[in-house]
């Protein structure tokens, strides 16, 4: 015990005598451990964190997919496929299908739009979750003739019903249908995403939906002992049988099974995880390089000290133990700071991901696995710091060469070359990450400046839904929308108002197949189908969005008159000719004459090209959810109460929800790009800081060891400025070498990032030149600051001290 206390006191004393080395080492370890732990925590959350359900390893997702260019394109299942897969499989203990929807709930005369899921009867059985109050669904509830029932989420139950246990058995209106509440789920349950209400299919999917209409997600609970591989083999066989039996709808499609956890991952998420993991690995290696050459410099300076102690009787074990004690203290301090850093970043990531559309049960928290990883990384740093030096001292037998060394020698040429190589690699790694960050940030800025075919400023959007038999016909909805728009335009401060089944950047546009009339004089002869976006709009839609027509005239309120095509559709079907006056037919029925051509509006991603789009009258539309667009200088808080009042004057039972400015909607769809840019920027800044810290520290410590040689040169007539610039020059030579290596690596990284860049070249000269200048200037400062010590060297004092 006394020996341990003595070693600890000696280690603390040694570290206090070298505050610069201690600070740089702790900071390097903290950043390396913190970034590695952050990457592990994010990966664990997405890839390995168990689902919050009993026996989560038995939960799997089943889908029908087709192969396009050897890449699996994820799909869902149709209603017939759901029943076929369930009936023919022997590996499923239970299966369920579900579809996310938005439903209108009317309670005490107030309508509210709620996130809901339409599910089959075994939904809760598959997940293994029981109700807090009442019961969940039974097979008898999932029949077209069964009374309408619903299960409520805990948060909705508390918000709208005050946590009243008597809500079970109460009748409420959901989508204008009298619905009995049969149960309330426990707190935290919101599967599949952030749902608050669960209702049975019970005829909500329509009668005899087609086999090719794949709109359902399918989840299963495997039987005990059944592996995912066995389930996959069985489902693949079933898919082959279905493709042979129904070639017109299933040919080229196959059945696939994944864990329910893996099914939540999107390509964007996987890209972000790979980038964060790769960047964290770079930073960890930079931190390791920092520690390695700092250790080399320190051990070179301490060789005589350790040799003297050995000469006075300190055994190899004693010296090794002290070195390990110092290493443990340094790594432990870095580990504590790094763990706190990672915990802070994970909490911040959790705040960002709340708006990313991930399921609410995916939570970024610093749990036990992340803590264990941080401890392992800390132990690795302790070994890296202590083991090589301890082993070297333990094996040393002849002390005379060390005792005869000149104080302050810089070490062998081999060690000097090793330190130089480590600095070059650090700078190169930092350049790679900085260039990647620059590319992603410039891409984000280009996206933010992309108008998307509209004038987004001063546009307020909101939604309403037309329910019940009185709004079954499109003409009835269009007439009521006309009344609403007239009232909205009368609000002081509103310059324009329009309505549509889609609001740009909300992913709500419908799809259809369009058949153009052939120009061969044959009546009723239509050309091959083209998949398009189909959007029903009111007159004035393009004017309100700030997207004027390129030719022809707008849609009207009549369901039987013209339609408007966008430029992408016009160029696809009638290149070099006029689209106005052409005739088209939709697969769902209806023939339209093109009356106008509109500019391309990007209804989905800003980074994607505008899809071919056909705009028809609201009277010909089929959607009951209608978006309202108002061009106004009023704020959302000022406008929303007045707009809701005018809408309720037309029909008090119409819900008003989803109010936002178009700028806010654009910001939401850029969340993945913004997160990718923030992650890249954070990693790049940390990497650059570590690299510059390494350059500064090594030069500073090296100059401290070589003061005698510097003093001799000054005494022999060398000028201080010349000596200083020689030191700076050596550092800048290493910087230029690191820049060259890093820019070559950045070219490879740019190719990997190319699919995720918008209007930015993977070899963007602005990014490459800017990063080169930034790193060179920063490295110059990192070299200049320690080199200025030469200006303060008194050769007489230095030689006298020696």
Question: Please, could you describe this protein's structure?
Answer:
The chain is α+β, with helices and mostly antiparallel strands and 802 residues long. Helices cover 50% and strands 18% of the residues. The strands form three sheets. Strands 3-4-9-6-8-7 form a six-stranded mixed barrel. It has a six-stranded mixed beta barrel with strand order 14-15-20-17-19-18. Strand 3 (92-107) and strand 4 form a beta hairpin. Helix 8 (267-311) packs parallel to helix 10 and helix 18 runs parallel beside helix 21. The longest helix has 45 residues, at 267-311.
Question: How do you describe this structure in short?
Answer:
This protein has 802 residues and is of the alpha+beta class. The chain is 50% helix and 18% strand.
Strand content: 15-25%
Oligomer: single chain
Q: So how many helices?
A: 22
Secondary-structure-derived class: alpha+beta
Low-confidence stretches: 68-73, 402-410
Determine the mean pLDDT.
82
**For the largest beta sheet, what order do the strands appear in spatially?**
3-4-9-6-8-7
Largest sheet: 6 strands, mixed, barrel
Shape type: globular
Which radius of gyration do the C-alpha atoms yield? Answer: 34 Å
């Amino acid at each position: 015990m006394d020996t341990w206390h003595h070693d600890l006191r000696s280690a603390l004393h040694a570290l206090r005598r070298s505050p610069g080395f201690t600070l740089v080492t702790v900071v390097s370890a903290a950043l390396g451990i913190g970034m590695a732990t952050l990457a592990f925590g994010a990966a664990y959350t997405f890839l390995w964190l168990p689902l919050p359900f009993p026996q989560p390893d038995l939960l799997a997702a089943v889908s029908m997919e087709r192969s396009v260019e050897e890449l699996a394109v994820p799909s869902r299942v149709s209603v017939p496929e759901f029943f076929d897969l369930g009936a023919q499989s022997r590996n499923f203990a239970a299966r369920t299908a579900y579809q996310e929807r938005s439903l209108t709930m009317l309670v005490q005369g107030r309508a509210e739009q709620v996130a809901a899921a339409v599910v089959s009867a075994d939904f809760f059985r598959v997940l293994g979750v029981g109700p807090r109050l009442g019961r969940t669904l039974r097979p008898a509830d999932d029949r077209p003739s069964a009374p309408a029932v619903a299960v409520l989420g805990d948060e909705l139950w508390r918000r709208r019903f005050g946590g009243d246990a008597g809500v079970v058995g109460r009748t409420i209106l959901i989508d204008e249908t009298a619905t009995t509440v049969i149960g309330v789920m426990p707190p935290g349950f919101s599967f599949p995403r952030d749902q608050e209400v669960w209702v049975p299919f019970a005829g909500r999917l329509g009668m005899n939906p087609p086999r090719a209409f794949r709109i359902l997600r399918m989840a299963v609970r495997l039987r005990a002992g059944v592996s995912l591989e066995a389930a996959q083999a069985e489902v693949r066989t079933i898919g082959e049988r279905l493709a042979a039996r129904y070639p017109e709808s299933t040919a080229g499609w196959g059945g696939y099974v994944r864990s329910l956890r893996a099914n939540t991952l999107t390509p964007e998420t996987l890209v972000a995880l790979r980038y964060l993991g790769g960047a964290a690995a770079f930073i960890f290696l930079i931190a390791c390089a920092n520690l390695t050459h700092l250790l080399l410099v320190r051990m070179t300076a301490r060789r005589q000290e350790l040799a003297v102690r050995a000469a006075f009787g300190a055994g190899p074990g004693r010296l090794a133990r002290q070195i390990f004690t110092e290493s443990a203290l340094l790594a432990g301090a870095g580990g504590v700071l790094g763990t706190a850093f990672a915990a802070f970043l994970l909490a911040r990531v959790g705040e960002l991901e709340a708006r990313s559309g991930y399921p609410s049960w995916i939570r970024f928290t610093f749990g036990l696995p992340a803590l264990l990883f941080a401890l392992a990384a800390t132990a690795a740093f302790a070994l890296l710091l202590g083991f090589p030096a301890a082993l070297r001292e333990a094996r040393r037998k002849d002390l005379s060469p060390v005792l005869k060394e000149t104080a302050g020698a810089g070490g062998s040429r081999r060690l000097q070359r090793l330190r130089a190589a480590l600095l070059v690699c650090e700078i190169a790694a930092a350049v790679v990450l900085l260039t990647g960050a620059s590319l992603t940030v410039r891409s984000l800025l280009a996206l933010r400046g992309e108008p998307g075919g509209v004038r987004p400023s001063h546009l307020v959007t909101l939604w309403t839904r037309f329910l019940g038999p009185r709004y079954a016909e499109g003409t009835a909805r269009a007439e009521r929308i006309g009344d609403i728009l007239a009232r909205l335009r009368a609000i002081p401060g509103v310059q324009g108002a329009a309505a549509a089944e889609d609001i740009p950047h909300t992913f709500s546009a419908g799809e259809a197949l369009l058949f153009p009339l052939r120009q061969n004089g044959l009546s009723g002869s239509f050309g091959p189908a083209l998949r398009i976006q189909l959007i029903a709009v009111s007159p004035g839609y393009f004017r309100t969005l700030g997207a004027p027509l390129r030719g022809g005239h707008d849609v009207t309120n009549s369901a039987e008159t013209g339609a408007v095509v966008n430029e992408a559709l016009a160029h696809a079907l009638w290149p070099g000719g006029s689209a106005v006056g052409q005739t088209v037919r939709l697969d769902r029925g209806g023939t339209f004459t093109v009356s106008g051509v509109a500019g391309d509006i990007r209804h989905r991603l800003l980074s994607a090209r505008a899809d071919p789009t056909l705009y028809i009258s609201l009277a010909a539309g089929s959607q009951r959810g209608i978006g309202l667009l108002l061009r106004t200088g009023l704020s959302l808080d000022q406008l929303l109460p007045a707009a809701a009042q005018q809408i309720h004057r037309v029909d008090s039972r119409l819900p008003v929800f989803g109010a936002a400015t178009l700028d806010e909607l654009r910001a939401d769809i850029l969340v993945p790009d913004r997160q990718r840019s923030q992650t890249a920027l954070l990693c790049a800044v940390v990497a650059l800081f570590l690299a510059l810290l390494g350059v500064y520290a090594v030069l500073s410590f090296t100059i401290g060891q070589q003061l005698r040689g510097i003093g001799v040169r000054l005494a022999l007539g060398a000028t201080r400025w010349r000596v200083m610039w020689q030191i700076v020059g050596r550092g800048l030579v290493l910087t230029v070498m690191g820049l060259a290596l890093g820019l070559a690596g950045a070219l490879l990284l740019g190719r990997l990032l190319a699919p995720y860049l918008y209007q930015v070249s993977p070899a963007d000269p602005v990014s490459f030149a800017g990063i080169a200048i930034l790193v060179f200037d920063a490295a110059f400062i990192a070299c200049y600051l320690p080199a200025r010590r030469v200006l303060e060297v008194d050769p007489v004092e230095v030689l006298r001290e020696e």
